[in-house]
Description:
Layout: E1 2-11, E2 14-25, E3 30-34, H1 39-42, H2 44-54, E4 63-69, H3 81-91, E5 102-104, E6 107-108, E7 114-115, H4 120-129, E8 134-138, H5 142-146, E9 152-156, H6 159-166, H7 205-217, E10 221-224, H8 231-236, H9 238-241, H10 247-260, E11 275-276, H11 284-288, E12 289-290, E13 295-296, H12 298-301, E14 306-310, H13 317-321, H14 324-329, E15 331-336, E16 339-344, E17 348-353, H15 374-381, H16 386-389, E18 394-397, H17 414-430, H18 442-448, H19 453-465, H20 470-487, H21 494-505
Parallel strand pairs: 3-4, 5-8, 8-9, 10-17, 10-18, 11-14, 14-17
Antiparallel strand pairs: 1-2, 2-4, 6-7, 12-13, 15-16
Helix pairs in contact: 2-3, 3-6, 7-17, 7-20, 17-20, 19-21, 20-21
Amino acid sequence: xxxxxWTAALEGVEAVPVSVEVDVHxxxxxxxxxxxxxxxxxxxxxxxxxxxRNGGWSFPPRRVTxxxxxxxxxxxxxxxxxxxxxxxxxxxxxxxxxxxxxxAAGELALDGALRPVPGVLPFALAARRAGARHLLVPAANxxxxxxxxxxxVVGARSLEDAARWLAGxxxxxxxxxxxxxxxxxSAAGGEGLPDGDLAEVRGQETAKRxxxxxxxxxxxxxxxxxxGSGKTMLARRLAGLLPDLDAATALEVTAVHSAAxxxxxxxxxxxxxxxxxxxxxxxxxxxxGGGASLRPGELSLGHGGxxxxxxxxxxxxxxxxxxxxxxxxxxxxxARHRGSVRFPARTQLVLADNPCPxxxxxxxxxxxxxxxxxxxxxxxxxxxxxxxxxxxxxxxRVPRPAYADAARPQGASTRELRARVExxxxxxxxxxxxxxxxxxxxxxxxxxxxxxxxxxRRLADAWTRHGLGMRGRVRVLRVARTIADLEGSAGVRxxxxxxxxxYRFAGEDE
Length: 510
């Protein structure tokens, strides 16, 4: 007796179709798994047996062989439980075949309950590409699967629910979550501004303006200042300035979070840009992704949003240097002997750091005078290498605010600034360019960011006096184009280039 079903194997943020074949034949009672199953898949044997028995069926006292094809793709994860159990029930005739074209994924508890699994959104995308008609998942995963569309998603709470529906019965009660539910919390940005409103930051008007520019053009930022100057408060409010994700990016972002297993149960499509802030002790794998299970790292989890590295100099040099290629390419490539896996990583990088090891360099009114030697300063600043700094767009000194700033009225709110950011991004989209200003190509810069004569003279002066190189000129023009978009200017003028040059060289007086 033979039964066949479908599921998928997760490779990075992509899912590969996997055929589940179950053959029940005479022989010593056993359950054998073939097809390159990992240790987690092999553990499904005990869960499947117990779930079938506790669901009121009998596990066949015969030899049961489960083949997961194709055999060259390594299988990992607990989501194979549900399709294996359903195929066993179909092969033994305990569940009559009522529906065809069904894909399934889900982990079984010993009592037959279905538990959520990571990667359901990539599974749904693979099922749609393969022309599947139905996708059967745990109820807690139904919301993210329905975000794909063009696919009948059924959320079940138990093996009994799934078997009854597979036999042609009515669908189980609606699963939690919906495709359009926006996600709150710090990981998703949130409409409720969980990290606070920018108006709550008193003073630091230059830094607030720079964050507005960064949000409008997708630029990377370095904040340098002493302890207590507000660097972390400012950085955490950048995600609130970003517009909602468009449909394509929202699907990518949700797929990354689903593959990483950090999407809360019942979630639908993530609509707000994510904000990620790993600790300085984060390893290279934690930041870039990979590991035995090839899961996305913090850089990819910040795709479409913000990656904030506080106290950047405390991160391992190898971790910081690994950021260089993804910042240029917008993706992380993990090479393995079986091939490479790509994770999307188009994120805004925000680095925050102290000006010296003690934190008080350049602050004569600090609680204590800076006692760092020149050698200590050089060694500390060298932790952020020149090539990494060269991939940043805005360099900001964030000094300690004056006491009078505490009594000043609040400035523009996050929602007010977001409206201006959205208008600037709309102007970028209307030009038909391939992305935000931070990613303009040389040809696009020549077309849409050509400076006027006065602005060109300012660039030439910076070339001579500050050593502005070719990469620096490109980045200054990208920022100037964003400033012009915020102003509603069709061209890049002298004042736009002057402001962009200020952001480029503001950190030189450290």
